[in-house]
C-alpha cells in the first residue's frame, strides 16, 4: 500500500513499481523533478539534453505520460518522435502500462473500450494520448502536454538544412498550435547540431523561456553521468571511436558547426606525438577567473613553435576553480614545459591574484616572465593574431587528448558559443607571439641544461648577441 501511494505521488516510485527491473540513478531523479514540475503546472517549457542510452525514453516517453494521465485522466498528450513508427511504439508501450494490473493498483484511470489503437487512444474519463511522427499532421487534437523525444533520427538528418527547416516548420505551424491554454512543451533529446530544434528554440529572440536540464556524459571534473553503466573508461573508449564532433554533440551536448565561422576546421591539424621539446620554443597564456563551482572557467594554454614557425598546442588546463587551485596548475605547467614567456590579461583579477602567483612561483621555482596585455576591442579583435597564424600555418592539436573535443567545439562555435575562455587563452598566446621572432637556425644547439629556449649565437659581426629561438 505504501509503494502504491508513493507511485501515485512520485514518477520515480511509479516507474519502479510498474517496472520491477528499473533501477534509477541520480540523473534520473533530476529528470523526474523536471517532469513532475510540468505535471504540477509549475513549469511549461522544459528542455532536457542527455547522451544516448542513458535512460531518457523509459522515464520521459514511456512512464511519464502514463503517470501524468493517471493523475490527470481528463487531459490530453501529444507525443512525437522522429518518425511515426517510433512514436507508435511509444504509444503502444504507454497504452500497455495504463492497461496493466500494476497501474490499476495505483490509479483509477482506465482505457476506453472502443479506443485502444497504439497511436491514438482515450481514457474512460475523456483524456487522450496521440502519437505522431515529427512532420506529420496532428490537426483536430489538443495537447495539455506536447512531448517531443528526439526529433532527429541520425547525423544525416541533423546535417540536412532542408530537414532541420522541415522540423522547425512542423513545430511552429503544426505542433505548437495544438497546445491547450496553459499547455506545456517537453523537449527531450540528444543534441546533434547547433541549429537543431533545441538550438533554434534556445536562440529564438523573445517568446518562450526554457527551463534547461543539460546532462553531459562527463562533467567538467570528469565525473561520469551514469558511472554504474558508463564509467569514465568506457566513455573515453566511445569518445575515441566516434570522433570529436559527435562526442561533443551527442555525449557532451555541445554541438559545434562542421566548418566553423571565425576559426575553420581545416586549420586544426591532428598530431599523435609532438616534436622533441628541445626543438620547440614554448609559450603560454591564461584567461583567469576567480569563481569556483559554476562560475567562469580559468584556462591555461601551452603552445610550442618549431623552427619553421608551426604551432603545436601542447597542453591545456581548464576548470571552474578557485584561484589557489588554478595558480598551482599554472605552476605545474611552467615546471613541465619551461616556457619562454606567458601572456595574461591586465585587469582586476591579475591585480588581485598577482601577488599569490608571484609568491607561488618563487616557492615552487616555477620561473617564467608573465607578459600583461591590455583588454582591447572585442574578443574577436583580441583573437585576431592567433587566427591569422592559424590561417597561414594551422594549429597542430593532440586529437586524442581528453580535452580536445571541448576545445574544438568552442573554437568552431566562436564567437556565438556559450564559452570563450579557451579562445581567450589562445588569443593571448597569439598576442605574445606577435612580440617574438621566429628565431634563426644558425648558432649552437640548445644545451640540455638550458630549458629557457635561448641559445648562444655568434653572428658575422662577432657581437655576442642572443637570438630568441
Summarize the structure.
With 469 residues, the protein is of the alpha/beta class. The chain folds into two domains: 2-215, P-loop containing nucleotide triphosphate hydrolases (Rossmann fold), CATH 3.40.50.300; 257-433, 2-Layer Sandwich (Nucleotidyltransferase, domain 5), CATH 3.30.420.240.
Tell me about this structure:
39% of the residues lie in helices and 21% in strands. It has 469 residues and is of the alpha/beta class. It has 2 domains: 2-215, Rossmann fold, CATH 3.40.50; 257-433, 2-Layer Sandwich (Nucleotidyltransferase, domain 5). Strand 3 and strand 4 (120-123) form a beta hairpin. It is elongated, with a radius of gyration of 28 Å. The protein starts with a helix and ends with a strand.
How big is the Rg? 28 Å
CATH homologous superfamily label of the largest domain: P-loop containing nucleotide triphosphate hydrolases
CATH fold name of the largest domain, please?
Rossmann fold
**Largest beta-sheet details:** 8 strands, mixed
**How large a portion of the residues is in β-strands, by DSSP E?**
15-25%
Tally of structural domains? 2
Strand order of the largest sheet: 3-4-5-2-6-7-1-8
Mean pLDDT: 88
Helix fraction by DSSP (H/I, runs of at least 4) = 25-40%
